[in-house]
Amino acid sequence: MSTSAVSPDLERMKERLKRIWMAGDYDRFSRHLESSAREFYERLQTAPGCRLLDVGCGSGQLALMAAKDGLEVTGVDIASNWVERARARAQAEGLPVRFEEADAEALPFKESSFDIVASLIGAMFAPRPDLVAKEMLRVCVPGGTIAMANWTPQGFVGQMFKVVSKFIAPSGMPSPVLWGDEATVRERFGGGLSELRLERRQYLFSYPFPPSDVVDLFRLYYGPVHQAFAALDGAEQEQLRRELEALWSVHNKSGRDCTTVSAEYLEVIGIRA
């Protein structure tokens, strides 16, 4: 089990990040994102009986897919309300998934505990990425799979984060979207992987309502956007709304009454050395 000293400043940063991610309702938000999550999961080439760890599991989206396929699944997240919701979903579907509140930088598991260690747009938000890479390697068996999906700096979500981060980004931490840069990923995993495949893919955001309503959805249910709006006065809120709506509108591939946007992410598939 990993332990690491945490300075008071870092502890405050982590608490702020936790509050950000616990805001809104990620379970409701994530229901619109099932199709591309399924595509990522199916490329992991899993098999029944494999032990899979979902790092930054949210409300259980990826973990529940794996459990339905007969994998032995554990999910961890720093947001306690998401963990509770994931447990409720698993119980409702009769799936034996283990969900725990835990930090991606200090995973509470022994070395070589899992055959697959995966993170779908989750672990990339931890403030100390080198520790995240170290922990993912540590708990994965030699020859096992480490997989991540990470937003890229150039992609749509990377652009959206630039808008939002002007209002809520904690200082002192590297940009999460550096996990979407190939050279950075290679450096962080170093010699811990015997094989590494990096491929840029598109994550589909599709909504049966216009961009203005998409901004409302993010404002209500997606923690970072929810907290950004909450931190602003009325005029600033209107400015943020205009910027976000313009971004969604420019990238929208559908008509005025629907919204379809493709967001680039870097798919990371590695084999533990």
| H/E series | HHHEHEHEEHEHHEHHHE
Give the beta-strand count. 7
The profile of the biggest β sheet is: 7 strands, mixed
Can you list the strand order of the major beta sheet?
3-2-1-4-5-7-6
Shape label: globular
Task: Compute the number of helices.
Answer: 11
Structural class: alpha/beta
How would you describe the overall organization of this protein?
The protein has 273 residues and is α/β, with parallel strands linked by helices. 44% of the residues lie in helices and 23% in strands. It is built from 11 helices and 7 strands. A 7-stranded mixed beta sheet has the order 3-2-1-4-5-7-6, with helices on both faces. The longest helix is centred in the last third of the chain and has 18 residues.
Précis, in short:
This protein has 273 residues and is α/β, with parallel strands linked by helices.
